[in-house]
Amino acid sequence: MRGYVKRVSQKVGKLSNEQLISLLDDMVEENENLYSILECISAGLLIVDNDFYLQQSNKIVESRLSFSVYLDDPKASSSPIWEIMEDEEIGDYFKKCYEKEITNSSEDFTVMTPGGSVRFLSITMTPLMHDGKTTGKIILVRDVTEKKNQEVLLHRMENMANLTNLAAGMAHEIKNPLGAISIHIQLIQKALEKARKNDDILPDKKFVEDHIDVVNDEIEHLNKLIMDFLFAVRPVNAQLQLKKPSALIQNIVDFFTPEFHDNDINVKLIIKDAESRLMLDEKLLRDVIINLAQNALAAINQKKENLGAKASKYTGEFTIECASADNKYYIIISDNGCGMKNETVSKIFEPYFTTKANGTGLGMTMVYKIVKEFSGDISVESKEGKGTVFTMVFPLQQDGKLAIES
User: Were both Cys, which of 56, 149, 180, 326 would link to 47 (CB 3.0–4.6 Å)?
Assistant: First the structure.
């Protein structure tokens, strides 16, 4: 039809009124067919010119994105698209594409629905071509919430595979306090039995209280073990949103830096990529960074203690680096503390493994679970007496490489 209309338009001066009416009817029918096709597309669609002024859209896009005016209102096409966007982050994305003359791009965003739930959107922009020239942009808006939720569910199922190891560790851990409780209750029972045979003369008050104190301590220990176990086996309740990790980490570093300075430890934050966004839960990321920071603080102070008189020549260093490469985002956390033995490194993420006298052995297990919940991976390198490096790697969204010609 397109070729037919083009050929006829070249001879329009020679056409009769009847032929012109017929041609116009054909063009109207084709336009209605194209409009119906646009409305049948499951993704939201925006067609803009090179200055990002709206040219065409379908109805579904208004259920995906929020605008300050209805898109069929003439006001919608009287200003750049970002000026009628209610979501500031998405509006800034379109404005950045315009200012930097980006023609191919794909980004994921999180938006809040009126009901308060989080939806995940994938926005893909490709050039609109005509006669070999770019005349505008085609913007597709897809709701990928279900896909993201399935990915999260898969990661949670993988994490639950560790439940057997956790249960075995828990069974081993509760044996000691149960054994202690049993022994001290037996001692109290024997003392009472002896008292009944001795004219009900009870043993010294401190004797009974000492045993009861031990029983109470062990009951409290058991309760803590159970609470830690429940915390470890429950699925991570992550509220994932697309966030800039560098900005979140900056706030976390600002929070714990005074404590490190009080311990004469230098803190360094290196941000080589401040713009990339990851699927994160802000609170859980904070838990990860704080946990690793506290471990580093303990390791540096332990090294000072080990050095003794030589500690005055030693300066503690703690560094966090945020960078990206090969469509991956890296958070690298390092210290120059006492380091770890190879055996410790190999078991550091195992539940109930700890080198601390009062440690639960679940802190690093939770760090591992949270990083996996973020679709990432974590590894550790350490050298005894030199320090430790934790490397977290997360996937980045790849830019789309599509082109649509017309």
Answer: 56
pLDDT digit string, tens, across residues 13-67: 666 777 777 767 666 666 666 766 666 777 889 999 999 999 988 888 888 888 9
In the chain, the amino acid numbered 141 is: V
* Cβ atoms of 377 and 393 closer than 8 Å: yes
DSSP helix/strand/coil, 314? coil
SS percent in the chain: helix, strand, coil, step 5:
50, 25, 25
Looking at residue 173, its amino acid is E
Question: Comparing C-alpha atoms, which of 250, 232, 93 is closest to residue 167?
Answer: 232
Q: Count CA atoms within 13 Å of residue 236 on its CB side.
A: 29
Residue 160 has pLDDT above 60, yes or no: no
DSSP string, 201-225: -PPPHHHHHHHHHHHHHHHHHHHHH
Name the least confident of 82-86, 126-130, 201-205, 267-271: 201-205
Sign of CA dihedral 307, 309, 315, 316: positive
Range list of β-strands (E), 70-207: 105-112, 118-130, 133-143
The CA distance from 59 to 78, in Å, is: 19
The span from the CA of 384 to the CA of 56, in Å, is 64
Instruction: Give me the residue label for tokens 């649509």.
Output: 404
Give the span between the Cα atoms of 124 and 107, in whole angstroms: 7
Length of the chain: 406
